[in-house]
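Next comes this protein.

***
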Amino acid sequence: MAKFTEDDVRERLKQVIDPELGIDVVNLGLIYGIDVVDREDGKTDVIVTMTLTTFGCPLGPILTEEVNFALRDLPDLGNVEINLVWSPPWTPDMMSEEAKDALGIW
Protein backbone atom coordinates (compact mmCIF):
# COMPACT_ATOMS: atom_id res chain seq x y z
CA MET A 1 0.00 0.00 0.00
CA ALA A 2 1.27 3.48 -0.90
CA LYS A 3 2.92 5.44 1.87
CA PHE A 4 1.59 8.63 0.31
CA THR A 5 -1.62 9.72 -1.36
CA GLU A 6 -2.74 11.76 -4.35
CA ASP A 7 -3.29 14.65 -1.93
CA ASP A 8 0.32 14.34 -0.71
CA VAL A 9 1.51 14.55 -4.32
CA ARG A 10 -0.74 17.57 -4.99
CA GLU A 11 0.68 19.36 -1.93
CA ARG A 12 4.23 18.72 -3.17
CA LEU A 13 3.32 20.06 -6.60
CA LYS A 14 2.33 23.36 -4.99
CA GLN A 15 6.10 23.88 -4.62
CA VAL A 16 6.44 24.05 -8.42
CA ILE A 17 6.14 27.72 -9.34
CA ASP A 18 5.63 28.96 -12.88
CA PRO A 19 8.55 31.42 -13.14
CA GLU A 20 6.68 33.79 -15.47
CA LEU A 21 3.50 34.07 -13.39
CA GLY A 22 4.83 33.38 -9.89
CA ILE A 23 1.94 30.98 -9.14
CA ASP A 24 2.22 27.24 -8.48
CA VAL A 25 1.15 24.73 -11.13
CA VAL A 26 -1.71 23.39 -9.00
CA ASN A 27 -3.37 26.77 -8.47
CA LEU A 28 -2.76 27.69 -12.10
CA GLY A 29 -4.88 24.66 -13.03
CA LEU A 30 -2.08 22.98 -14.99
CA ILE A 31 -2.44 19.64 -13.16
CA TYR A 32 -5.17 17.60 -14.84
CA GLY A 33 -4.64 14.34 -12.99
CA ILE A 34 -2.50 12.44 -10.49
CA ASP A 35 -2.36 8.65 -10.33
CA VAL A 36 -0.63 6.83 -7.49
CA VAL A 37 0.11 3.22 -8.45
CA ASP A 38 1.39 0.59 -6.00
CA ARG A 39 3.97 -1.87 -7.32
CA GLU A 40 4.63 -5.40 -6.12
CA ASP A 41 8.12 -4.43 -4.94
CA GLY A 42 6.68 -1.98 -2.38
CA LYS A 43 7.47 1.11 -4.42
CA THR A 44 4.80 3.52 -5.61
CA ASP A 45 4.79 5.07 -9.07
CA VAL A 46 3.28 8.49 -9.73
CA ILE A 47 1.75 9.56 -13.03
CA VAL A 48 1.11 13.29 -13.37
CA THR A 49 -1.04 14.46 -16.27
CA MET A 50 -0.52 18.15 -16.85
CA THR A 51 -0.55 20.88 -19.44
CA LEU A 52 1.19 24.19 -19.97
CA THR A 53 -0.31 27.63 -20.38
CA THR A 54 0.60 27.62 -24.09
CA PHE A 55 1.59 25.00 -26.63
CA GLY A 56 5.34 25.15 -27.11
CA CYS A 57 5.88 26.98 -23.83
CA PRO A 58 9.67 27.30 -23.44
CA LEU A 59 9.30 26.59 -19.69
CA GLY A 60 7.94 23.07 -20.29
CA PRO A 61 11.23 21.26 -19.64
CA ILE A 62 11.91 23.37 -16.55
CA LEU A 63 8.45 22.73 -15.08
CA THR A 64 8.64 18.96 -15.68
CA GLU A 65 12.08 18.89 -14.05
CA GLU A 66 10.68 20.82 -11.09
CA VAL A 67 7.78 18.34 -10.78
CA ASN A 68 10.29 15.48 -10.54
CA PHE A 69 12.33 17.44 -8.00
CA ALA A 70 9.27 18.20 -5.83
CA LEU A 71 8.33 14.51 -5.61
CA ARG A 72 11.83 13.04 -5.23
CA ASP A 73 11.75 12.35 -1.48
CA LEU A 74 8.28 10.82 -1.16
CA PRO A 75 8.63 7.56 0.81
CA ASP A 76 9.26 4.50 -1.39
CA LEU A 77 8.77 6.49 -4.59
CA GLY A 78 9.16 4.43 -7.73
CA ASN A 79 8.93 6.00 -11.16
CA VAL A 80 7.52 9.42 -11.90
CA GLU A 81 5.87 9.79 -15.29
CA ILE A 82 4.75 13.16 -16.57
CA ASN A 83 2.23 13.19 -19.38
CA LEU A 84 2.02 16.57 -21.10
CA VAL A 85 -1.36 16.95 -22.76
CA TRP A 86 -2.97 19.71 -24.78
CA SER A 87 -6.60 18.72 -24.48
CA PRO A 88 -8.49 20.31 -22.99
CA PRO A 89 -6.47 23.43 -23.70
CA TRP A 90 -5.61 25.49 -20.63
CA THR A 91 -7.55 28.70 -20.05
CA PRO A 92 -7.41 31.22 -17.19
CA ASP A 93 -10.79 29.87 -16.03
CA MET A 94 -8.92 26.80 -14.76
CA MET A 95 -7.05 28.83 -12.14
CA SER A 96 -8.04 28.73 -8.50
CA GLU A 97 -9.64 31.80 -6.96
CA GLU A 98 -6.37 32.30 -5.06
CA ALA A 99 -4.39 32.44 -8.32
CA LYS A 100 -6.91 34.78 -9.95
CA ASP A 101 -6.70 37.08 -6.94
CA ALA A 102 -2.89 37.08 -7.06
CA LEU A 103 -2.91 37.97 -10.75
CA GLY A 104 -5.81 40.42 -10.50
CA ILE A 105 -8.00 38.39 -12.89
CA TRP A 106 -11.80 38.58 -12.62
About this structure: The two ends are 42 Å apart (CA to CA).
